[in-house]
Fold these 3 entries.
Entry 1:
Amino acid sequence: MDLLDRLKDARKKGKPVFWDGAMGTQLIGRGLAGQAPELWNLERPDEIREIHRDYVLAGSDVIQTNTFGANRLKLKGAGLESRLYQINLSAVKLAKEAAGGKALVAGDIGPTGEMMEPMGSLTVEQTEAAYQEQASILAEAGVDLFNIETMFDLAEAQAAIRALKSAAPRIPVAAEMTFKKNRRGFFTMMGVSPEKAVRGMAEAGAEVVGANCSIGPKEMVELVRELRAHTVLPILAQANAGDPKLEHGKEVYGVSAKQFAEFARPTFDAGAEAIGACCGSSPEFIREMAARFER
């Protein structure tokens, strides 16, 4: 059963499709420091495979490849532009080995790290070319879907969606933007509202829309409710494990796996057909959430 079929069945079954949790947090816990996380696909593949496998064993129905920053523009800044193909190809291979047919593999796609016109110098054409190149490799390697995440700029999110649809029209696209709450409501760093975000992503061709990062699980319930008011598409929600605090030079997140899981059913009831976790999370977060729907 493919992603869209699983999402359609979520309400009938009374439980969401479970995404995985943080990759970066897990890598930092294993010693990542001062280098691109995607390089571990080539230099420490066993650890990447183990992280994926732990999420599958915890109950993730979808795992995301370690390719968040594996577009040409982002890799160039890390001096890894020449290894783009190998990094993306190996990422899918490792995820598929860990999935073992028990979970779908999502090609993970993050921001370019550069500002688009008119705020910056990056053109729409350059943006789409970078995403199309990455998507073509991920599609060749056999991903089941694409997952665009942590987007602040709607124009960049739309460029990514269009590029993915051009590179692999038959592969479903999930797209998530990142919001913070202020006295006026939820907005991205670029001032994009939830309503404008979901409508814009849908117009560009996304089959699944949602939000990840920046907010904790309690706020995510409220945000999902607002997203649901403006779209009929399936919604994906991946909150952080609370707000990070710096302790002894390290980021520490204040929400435990059990506390996080308390908001899983409210998030589902608010309208999210797919639920995962973001920064500060671990396989235990997925395990705890999944357990709430087995009771």
Entry 2:
Amino acid sequence: MTARGDFVERFGGVFEHSPFIAERAYDAGLILIPLTAKGVHQAMASVFRKASDEEKIGVLRAHPDLAGKLAIAGELTEDSKREQAGAGLDRLSPAEHARFTALNAAYTEKFGFPFIIAVKGLGRQDILAAFEARVDNSASEEFATACGQVERIALLRLLALLPEG
């Protein structure tokens, strides 16, 4: 496998199911050795920010609903499963699950992509409060907020894989 192939294989999922970001960062010569979480994140976030709105929406839509159908079916990526479990989303009460399901449906209907939040360090109530606040955002506000959260998730994932730098 080529160095590019190795890089994309290792980091292509950092932006949920969106290896094009790793490919473009590598192809643009943005990946510097030694690899550090901050350096790789800076390169990949730059590519994400330059992506078309359609591509960004694709990245947003690649994220699973929080405590949604994929989680119940056990079909989350390992990163998403670990992140949601760390926030206690795998241990919701029936009432909490019903609230998340209702908010997921309302949010996705309004914005056309799932609610995205970097859950590390947050509890269920923190996430629920953010969910309830953000569902009232304008489409442009929420698109920007969701993109920022995607970048934060990517950084947290990279920090788990590489030295901070």
Entry 3:
Amino acid sequence: MDAPKSPPVYKDRRTGLLIFGVIEILLGCLCLLLVPLILFGHVMGAKATGKPPDYKVIMPSVIMYPFLAVAFVWLGIGSIKKRRWARAVSLIIGWAWLLAGVAGIVGFVTMGPAIFSGAAGGQPLPPGARIVMLVTAALMLGVFFVAAPATLILFYRSPHVRATCEAADPHPAWTDACPLPVLAVSLWLLVAALWMPLMPLFYNSVMPFFGILLQGIAGTLVFLVLAVLWLYAAWSLYRLKPIGWWITAITMGLLVISSAITFSSIDIMEMYRAMGYSEELLQQMQQMKFSGRQFTIWGVIGGALMLGYLIFIYRYFRRPGLA
């Protein structure tokens, strides 16, 4: 007779889950603290210019950070309790945070010199001060948007952490219903779908649409249609239905093509002007040399990366016998 198999050996990571759970809770508190800081900074900036504050400009951030605060606190509690769903969602957020951070650093390297080319009052900064500000900002971005999420990923992707969570939480969680790479797209589509109905409020219903700027009811309808499609796609992806993959690929592709066509003939500043941005803010954006060409290039790169990722997860949607 064969000898009974011994259970797999793993290193207990309960202490690490406790520490990282506390860190995530603190990150949630930090996100919540950013809301009054953003409001205070916006009000002080408006007083400095002598004009009333335009709260609509900062409303996306004011809504986003409380959402992130709830998410991090929820994940922190789940990590402390060694829940397997907390590990899975922490990995998803960590990867999204890291990718956004890398993109932000690349954008900063591209636009940073223009951002720090002048100071308040329009006087150019001395070269030495400009270099110090650029390096300091780059280091801060590197710590908070690359090192921090990378540390989160390295911890939660450990097989020992996974084994610890599965031992403490033996029953399958909702995150086990589909592969983690697919779950990531499903969750972010859900977030995007819930965000779409707010877009008309934040941006005056302005929507780039194949060479024109839709506004009013037409723009609002496009946002609402996207919300419905992405809600259905998020559910379908979670259920591993191919229709969800196709809806995601087609809508993302059409949005990239639409933006490229629109900003090849329309100045992007016209879009921001239609969205209600003040002339002072538009002038600041022009000083940073922000253009429709840059917007299109970033959109095409992001769309290509998204398409590549969708191709990567397509194998999960192949029917038996077609692989």
